[in-house]
Design brief:
Rossmann fold; 8 helices; alpha/beta; homodimer; seven-stranded parallel sheet
Amino acid sequence: MSTGTRIVELRKGVLKKNDEIAAGLRSRFGAYSLPVVNLVSSPGTGKTTFLERTLRQLRAAGEHPAALVGDLETDNDARRLAASGAPVKQINTHGRCHLEAEMVGQHLEGWDLSAFTYLFIENVGNLVCPSSYDLGESARVTLLSVTEGEDKPLKYPSIFNSADVAVLTKMDLAGACEFDRETARRNIEEIRPGIRIFETSSKTGAGFAPWLHYLAEVRERARAHEFPVP
Amino acid sequence: MSTGTRIVELRKGVLKKNDEIAAGLRSRFGAYSLPVVNLVSSPGTGKTTFLERTLRQLRAAGEHPAALVGDLETDNDARRLAASGAPVKQINTHGRCHLEAEMVGQHLEGWDLSAFTYLFIENVGNLVCPSSYDLGESARVTLLSVTEGEDKPLKYPSIFNSADVAVLTKMDLAGACEFDRETARRNIEEIRPGIRIFETSSKTGAGFAPWLHYLAEVRERARAHEFPVP
């Protein structure tokens, strides 16, 4: 067996092990009817700012969201998110380019999941590798900022294809970036036909009403135990 | 031996094999005194637009640059770069999150390297994985756009630490993004003390004169066979 073949087989083994742990997490979240949202995107798309506003608005509406946030190094993002008042834990991957289900499970320790009405997981900024790792989430959300270019869905298809919904961020910069909204939407839909797309600005709050409405739907599905089967 | 340990060992094997192929490429490039520049960044930093302008300006100055460009899928970038008039080949990684030395070697076939005065390699957009893969380059350039946030060097240290120089892109958007130039520079220098940083706009051409001056230095070093030893 060549080294290449062995690596592919071991990689499958890693993914299989991850899928088993993710299935366990999904059962555990299901027992609490807890909706879990996995946010994936490039570095710099604005995941943290988007999540910070989401946490604040959910809390203002009487919800109890919590968040895990992954980064190679630093706890900058956890500190930013904790300013919302929500419980937050940082996961440092120390060079690993994605979160794995095992890391999520380890960081749930000490938390009473029955106290939460949402759990968000902000993945490591990477438009490739996180697409292969199920984290037991109820919904996977792929974000794309208007500054990144309309062609990204075609060039990074797996992360858009595995998404439940897509979020365009930094819409307030659309003019300055000469962002072509129709082309971006068409490219996302080419990779994932029929997907819902939210157009948002975390700076102005534009587009957050339909996004929060979607989150309420995800929560209703979790209560009815209608998790999508991966 | 646990699966985890086996994977780490096989991974070291992959990197060792890549390093051997990269060393072979470096000798081959050295035989032609050909400077090779590896461009790495997140998706959407503007590598392709930056490289397109670089190719045009080098050609206008009488140079003969060529480029390889990596993407998971599509040949969009190769087509954009080829509009500069330079020879360009697309490398599709089909899901792989970085370029490897072997892919570079395969795509040199049919090219007469003695006809080129520069070879650029635009890596897959990824701020983590490409840092581990030597491509036989003379210089590794890490790009960061002003839209991505000043904290990225701290959160993705390996790709900044392994860079020879750093390039800030989209400086024309600095105002709209409330980009904090001093903080960004300080964060880059914290990870890679003493590194040269170019502040550029591919839209206006700002900052390209010092960048092209740097490229001329890289070329002089290649002619003097002063490749940095990885």
